[in-house]
């Protein structure tokens, strides 16, 4: 908090900006978290909806999402399953926001081409997942994104990868990009 911590105000200001997250990043991360919990709220399964309920956090004495309290603490297969399931639901249901229309989009009524046209690119998903896992770390959750790469056949990242490949087949122009992605994932799948 010292404005002259590194000698003078100008140097201190530059160094703080270099090593801290920006307000813009914090806003983007918060928006991602709100979208992450907006998807379970609309889910037809009551247990999934309950993950987005806000409850009083007994450890931090503040309100937080039930999901965070449920998966906090020591790692366990059950917690891994809950996080993986929530991330998969997020990946499959996240679409670009139509800023001109506030209505909820029913993905079951869209054609595969329409659905593919409103999907984010993998780099956007990577950013969203970084935001979510960074926030989870702040909430005291021990899992990291790398904990989910070894789940054979059920990892949210693998499910998203296969889902994205299906989308690419609807747009032949993107096949060259598909080949690049496929060659980069050959060793990981």
What does this structure look like?
The chain has helices at residues 9-19, 23-41, 46-50, 66-71, 77-93, 112-117, 122-138, 156-169, 175-185, and strands spanning 54-57, 62-65. With 189 residues, it is mainly alpha-helical. It has one domain (9-185). A two-stranded antiparallel ribbon has the order 1-2. Helix 2 crosses helix 7 and helix 5 packs parallel to helix 8 (156-169). The longest helix has 19 residues, at 23-41. It is globular. The model has no long low-confidence stretch (mean pLDDT 76).
Report the strand count: 2
Number of helices: 9
Mean pLDDT across all residues, rounded?
A: 76
Q: What is the strand arrangement across the widest sheet? A: 1-2
Low-confidence stretches: none
Query: How far apart, in Å, are the first and last alpha carbons?
Result: 47 Å
Beta fraction: under 5%
* Spatial extent as radius of gyration: 19 Å
- Give the total of domains: 1
Order of helices and strands: HHHEEHHHHHH
Provide the fold topology.
Layout: H1 9-19, H2 23-41, H3 46-50, E1 54-57, E2 62-65, H4 66-71, H5 77-93, H6 112-117, H7 122-138, H8 156-169, H9 175-185
Antiparallel strand pairs: 1-2
């Amino acid at each position: 908090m010292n404005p002259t911590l590194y000698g003078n105000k100008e140097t201190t200001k530059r160094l703080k900006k270099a090593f801290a997250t920006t307000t813009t990043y914090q806003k983007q991360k918060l928006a991602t978290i709100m979208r992450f919990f907006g998807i379970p709220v609309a889910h037809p399964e009551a247990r999934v909806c309950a993950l987005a309920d806000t409850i009083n956090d007994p450890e931090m004495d503040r309100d937080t999402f039930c999901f965070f309290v449920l998966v906090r603490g020591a790692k366990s297969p059950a917690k891994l399953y809950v996080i993986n399931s929530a991330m998969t639901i997020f990946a499959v249901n996240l679409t670009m926001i139509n800023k001109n229309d506030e209505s909820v989009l029913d993905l079951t009524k869209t054609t595969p081409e329409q659905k593919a046209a409103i999907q984010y690119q993998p780099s956007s998903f990577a950013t969203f997942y970084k935001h979510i896992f960074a926030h989870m770390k702040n909430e005291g959750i021990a899992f990291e994104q790398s904990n989910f790469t070894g789940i054979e056949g059920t990892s949210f990242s693998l499910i998203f990868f296969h889902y994205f490949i299906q989308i690419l087949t609807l747009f032949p122009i993107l096949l060259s990009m598909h080949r690049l992605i496929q060659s980069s994932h050959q060793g990981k799948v």
